[in-house]
Amino acid sequence: MEKLVISGGRALNGKIMLQGSKNSALPILAATLAVGGTSVIHNCPVLTDITAALKILEHTGCKIKREGHTVIVDSSAASRYDIPECMMREMRSSIIFLGALISRFGCAGVTPPGGCEIGLRPIDLHLSSLRRMGVDISENGGVLECRAPCGISPCHIALAFPSVGATENIMLASLRVKGETVITNAAREPEIKDLADFLKKCGARISGAGQSVIRINGVERMHSSVHSVIPDRIVASTYMACAACTGGKIAIDGICREHLLPVITVFEGAGCRIGIKNNELIINAPEKLSRIKSLRTMPYPGFPTDSQAIVTAMLATAHGTSVITEKIFENRFRHVPELIKMGADIRVEDGSVAVIEGVERLRGARVSACDLRGGSALAVAALGAEGKSVIENIHHIDRGCEAIEESFSLLGADIKRIKN
Length: 420
Ligand code: UD1
Known about the structure:
Distance between the termini: 6 Å
Number of strands: 23
Largest sheet: 4 strands, mixed
CATH architecture of the largest domain: Alpha-beta prism
Strand order of the largest sheet: 21-22-1-23
CATH class of the largest domain: Alpha Beta
CATH superfamily of the largest domain: Enolpyruvate transferase domain
Strand content: 25-35%
Shape: elongated
Bound molecules: uridine-diphosphate-N-acetylglucosamine
């Protein structure tokens, strides 16, 4: 088991290049199976979740080449439409292969997905949408057997909640459906638009991605394409929080300003000065952060749930009382008990509201990552804390942050990965 050892209290300074988005790369990799041919995906982050997605593609019969941040997927010979439970369990995003398999083969056999334990994370919206499209889904020994014996029908799907994954699955499943599929209350996250941009390059007819109403007009043929994944807005917010926590000044290269607007407002509210020129963001932190009176996580373009843990860690040493309400997942404050071990004064009410009384400083402690973003939040807290912290279970962090110790070292942090 690897650990991170961080000696905190140094102001971070310097410049860093932002990685590609995990949440964009994963559905795009699933989409390479749907479109066929040989797709070239650039700016694909080197992460364990990406490795898990590539294993699924290989299992279906795809040939994979990985050269640094470029992944080449040749899906011409793909023939398997079942995904074993051990692969499905690796991550939540494995469920996006369901839409891709249905699009390519008209059938699929999958088990419910794994991923971070941040709530129930049901897939009812995915399944009810596919059923509405004419897919027969039955459960057999824990396997969801999906078939569209009469083909898939175009229809209007009104999502009860703008689920990112359900929106992606419907988009993928409807690529070749004759007629127009309409999704209302679709998720508007930038990763949805990135998936649509890739699919459009491959010949798909999709309009409205990034807005609440998405229209997919099925095409008979699709072809492979070359695409570069968008920058990771959540990892950008993690670097921003590192600067904010340590009173530092850093430049993040390769950002997309529009994607970061919901988090920029919050960092500015806490007293950070932020400047953006072209694709570079410079964040300059004050000596002491101000509280954020009230912050709620919301679907995009609201404040992202994935940045909540990081901001909770940052506000632990802000001046005054901050309140954060988690509106997307039921169980997303599991980092709080760990932050409390570091001296934070946070109480969680009804499982969904964190009341953060800013303390003078955090102190180093032995803590454990319990999920991806919660783990990153502990690293952020440790960088700002006085003394040494040891973070265990960092495989969670490795699912989404590329070589976190190298990035933070570049910014002047005292951080080491140790094995034992
Ligand atoms: C994606 C992101 C994840 C992010 C989340 C919300 C990827 C790989 N992951 O996850 O990092 O935190 O969006 O921005 O892109 N829900 C249901 N039934 C469903 C589907 C979802 O009740 O069938 C609920 C979920 O339990 C959750 C909420 O809807 O409470 C949001 O989930 P969703 O948008 O689907 O998130 P994911 O696609 O799983």
